[in-house]
Amino acid sequence: MVKNEKIVICGASGSGKDFLLRGLTKKKLRYQPKITTRPKRSLEQEGIEYNFVDNEIFDSLLESNQIKVYQNFLINDNDWYYAISNQNFEDNQIFIMTPHEISCLNVEDRKKCFVVYLDMDEDVRRSRITNRDDNSDSIERRIKSDKEDFKRFVDYDLKISDPEFDIDMVYELMN
Questions:
Q1: What is this structure's pTM?
Q2: How many C-beta atoms lie closer than 10 Å to residue 33's C-beta?
Q3: β-strands 158-160, 113-118: how paired?
Q4: What is the dihedral of CA 9, 64, 49, 82, to 10 degrees?
Q5: Which of 154, 147, 99 is nearest to 126 (CA)?
Q6: In whole angstroms, what is the distance from residue 26 CA to residue 121 CA?
Q7: Is 70 helix (H, G, I), strand (E, B) or coil?
Q8: Is 110 in contact with 7 (CB distance < 8 Å)?
Q9: What is the mean pLDDT of each run of 10 residues along the chain (175 residues)?
């Protein structure tokens, strides 16, 4: 079955975004990771989780209008950027975005997207985050930041709260 719609996965830390992403890529939907300026975590690989760039490269892409959406986070005096390039948005079908990034899509681009909001219980998310080998960011900071980022989020097409959700169901709902 050919899917023409783009799927945007949105959810707080530990909500299952990567799990859904992996399941959808197995169904042959096209994906390429975001650009980020933050340091690589211990188990991450270039071009798999993110495309890691320095601030100079990111600034150049931004200045030359090659960025579709981006967001920055100030964490421990570090200014980290995450972005999806125009080319990535045109070439691919699966994206992980924050509520802010979704709000930055223009009306026409948003119409092309099926937004799936993974709204998992905080205890489930906390457990998942704790089990990661990731010391670059505190769990409490993430939980607090996520509460703020998602407290007014309503721009989604499907909300999933079951931690045992079915990837096939999500895929079947796409156009």
A1: 0.91
A2: 21
A3: parallel
A4: -60
A5: 147
A6: 26
A7: strand
A8: no
A9: 92 96 96 95 89 96 98 86 97 97 97 97 91 70 90 97 96 94
